[in-house]
TrEMBL record:
<feature type="compositionally biased region" description="Acidic residues">
    <location>
        <begin position="430"/>
        <end position="477"/>
    </location>
</feature>
<dbReference type="Pfam" id="PF11955">
    <property type="entry name" value="PORR"/>
</dbReference>
<feature type="domain" description="PORR">
    <location>
        <begin position="66"/>
        <end position="406"/>
    </location>
</feature>
<dbReference type="GO" id="GO:0003723">
    <property type="term" value="F:RNA binding"/>
</dbReference>
<dbReference type="InterPro" id="IPR045040">
    <property type="entry name" value="PORR_fam"/>
</dbReference>
<protein>
    <recommendedName>
        <fullName>PORR domain-containing protein</fullName>
    </recommendedName>
</protein>
<dbReference type="InterPro" id="IPR021099">
    <property type="entry name" value="PORR_domain"/>
</dbReference>
<feature type="region of interest" description="Disordered">
    <location>
        <begin position="407"/>
        <end position="477"/>
    </location>
</feature>
Amino acid sequence: MGDSLVRFAVVAAADAVAGFIRPHQTDSSANFAAATMLLRPLRRFLGRLPLAQPHRTFVDARVTWVRDRGLDHAVEKEKYLQPFHALKDFLLLPSSASSSPSSSGPSLTLTSISAHAAQLHLPFRPIRFIRLFPSALIEESPPPSSGVPPHPVIRPTDELVRLHEDEQRALEAARPDSADRLLRLLMIARRRRLPLTLIDRLRWDLGLPRDYARSILPDYPDYFQIVPSTSGVPGALDLELVLYRKDLAVSAMERYAMKFGGYKKGMSLPFPLHFSRGFDLQKKVRNWLDEWQKLPYISPYEDASHLKPKSDLAEKWTVAVLHEVLNLLVPKKTEKENLILLGEHIGLPPGLTKVITHHPGIFYVSNKLRTHTVVLREAYRRDLLVEKHPLMGLRYQYSHLMHKGKETVVEKGKKPRRAAADDSALTDIAGEDEEGEEDNEEDDEEDEEDVMEEEELSTIESEDLESDDEDANQSAR
């Protein structure tokens, strides 16, 4: 406020000087010269003042986050799915050295699973995690009369084995599609290469098999090659593009537009918009959005280095890249951290969170499962995918199996019944003297999730405001 008053006083003084000169000068050139001489100190002083902030547009403004319960459920219903799937693979894939095939099927000792708990990303003690899914995992122990130490053994149910076999067939059938999807991601990358550690992080979302480096990459030598990383990290490896396929350099937005004909490169392509119920756009924001949608669409596979940073056109290209990346992913969603890490390699600007949160009709940020998940809105109708990849159909079946049978094992107000024959032996092995406390951990975690939701929303918005402050500071400098 003080700066504004000073600025007003300076301008008023300048007007007064100009008013003083006019009646005392008859020559226009003399007027101009005299005014310039007298106003020069005022201009110098004016230049030292902080520049006034321009009127904030929709891109620069803070956008209110509105919950979408359908998309939240799409994220929340996959709770524990990834660690469950990792444990399933550890139990059933031939590469699991600890797996013990027998006449009764594959099995693993609880000791072996516990030794790999961190690698499997199990959220809590293995025995408690396993007991959450009685329709998928069977817990057994030798009878006391056998004389064998009562080490619990974990076996898959027949239904889990059947689903696993269906998944292996689906992965085999999807190999060409998986290779093309990975190729497109490398084509978007600025240097046509990505760290293998980043691809490992995105493996689940890309729908790649766990052993993709051995089962897919060697079969496509014309597509990929593994090379030493230029990051300077000892032993680090990158996956590098060998062949750039122009026929694949067509985004999902362009493919959809071509169905109706008449589309040419550089034309305007508006993004589909779907807002949460209760979300309302102000008139000036909607007017800006309408104009922004009319801007030319620049493909994420094109070089956009010529675009002016922080311009509306650069913003639209960034949205196009995020839109295409999410389309390449099997679930059409991923953790925000994955996009930030990927953005460093595909030329996205630093303020990625700001772009995501400022386009709530295109992207939705869910704070479920103690993380921020970015969802492509147009890919979902409520909590279901519009076009479901075969692997996603199998993942839904895994989720159904994980929850199946819980109501028969857990009665209201009672602890889960043990499936093992010798409860006392398992108590000694698993340390069940702590189970009473740990059984409440999951309930506490769920309560904490509800309490933390508002804090997480504040985090999203504070990150947004921090990026605004950084922009303001840069402008002031």
